[in-house]
Amino acid sequence: MKTALGLFFTLLWSSAAIATKFGLHSTTPLVLATTRFLIAGGLLFLYVYVIRRKYPWPKLQEWRSLIILGLLNTTIYLGATFWALNYVSAGLFNLFVTTNPFIVAFLSYLWLERRITLKEWIGMIIAAAGLLIASWPSLTNSDATVTGLIILGLGMVSMAIGSVYFTKCNLNLPSIVINTWQVTIGGLVLIPITYVLEKEIYFLKLDLYLIGSLTWLVFIISIGTMLLWFYLLKQDTVRANNWLFTTPIFGYVLAVIFLNESITIFDIAATVLIIIGLLFSGNIVIHPIKKTQYSKSL
User: Fold this and answer.
1) Residue 159 has pLDDT above 70, yes or no
2) Dihedral pair phi/psi, residue 27, rounded to 5°
3) Among residues 292, 237, 274, which one has the least CA distance to residue 92?
4) Three-class SS of residue 27?
């Protein structure tokens, strides 16, 4: 059952880049992202606090964690990845998602005093080589830009930080409440950022591309897939992040079907190297740490 849920999550997660690419036919990246988050947050708020009325409001001490999660998982991660998709292919985007488990392990080494074994270091190096192989042809063929890759990398780091922080802050709230506030807060913070960065290039066309993209991104990704992501994180943070290693497989297939993107020998070689890196590192299992150690790290 857990394997089926993990694969289902990965399929849906990799489809977000495809839906975003369609939406970019009709508007700019951050306008699309902000619109998605505000609609999703509004619908979740309506369901949680108006229709059902059984869910708790966050306590005073919980707002800090919700704001941080909103900034990390919505404003920075999703805002950056939406922006990056203007410069990189959907296939390359989904390949970069596989860096998340390695970043999680490295951040645990820095913040939680968790030791990284030699096998894990070698696994990270192999995976990094895979990313280099995938990125280099895209850069030389103008299918991606250095700026796009930097923005994409920033988003992936933010997601990894959010994953570690979510597990350790141990919010005593239902997943749907956490998702409601992180999406809403992240979307609100993104409004002035969108205005500053896109006021000169803004455009919006209300067509089937935009409606279809927003419908998928709001209902399937922001609401459905994020609730499944929180469920997987609560079961095991690292195992949940390890499912992201299968995103290139689904991502490339979806990109070929819906966007007519091609799969090159470089893409296949990069995917193989990244999976080898994962297997060699032993799935990057994070060992439990003492509570006092975590408190000191923060």
Assistant:
1) yes
2) -165, 180
3) 274
4) strand
Distance in angstroms (rounded) separating the CA atoms of residues 104 and 158: 10
8 A C-beta contact, residue 103 and residue 268: no
Q: What DSSP letter does each residue of 125-163 carry, written as one string?
A: HHHHHHHHHHHHHHHHTTSS-HHHHHHHHHHHHHHHHHH
Encode pLDDT of 219-232 as tens digits: 999 888 888 887 88
For residues 19 and 224, the answer to whether their CB atoms sit within 8 Å is no
Amino acid at 110: L
| Cβ atoms within 10 Å, residue 129 | 16
pLDDT, residue 146, reads 80
- How many CA atoms lie less than 13 Å away from 135 in the CB half-sphere? 18
What whole-number distance in Å separates Cα of residue 32 and Cα of residue 46?
21
> Tens digit of pLDDT for each residue in 110-158?
776 667 777 777 877 787 787 777 667 766 665 667 888 889 889 989 9
Question: Cα dihedral sign for 279, 17, 74, 52?
Answer: negative
Task: Supply 164's token pair.
Answer: 């570690």
How far apart are alpha carbons 174 and 185 in whole angstroms? 17
What the block records as the tokens of 133 is 């192989």
Which pLDDT belongs to residue 129? 80
Quick one: tokens of 92?
Answer: 């390359």
* Angle subtended at Cα 295 by Cα 293 and Cα 298, rounded to the nearest 5 degrees: 110
Which of the pair, 97 or 159, is modelled with greater confidence? 159
Structure confidence by residue, pLDDT tens digits, 168-207: 787 889 988 998 999 999 999 999 999 999 988 889 999 9
Q: What is the CA radius of gyration of the chain?
A: 19
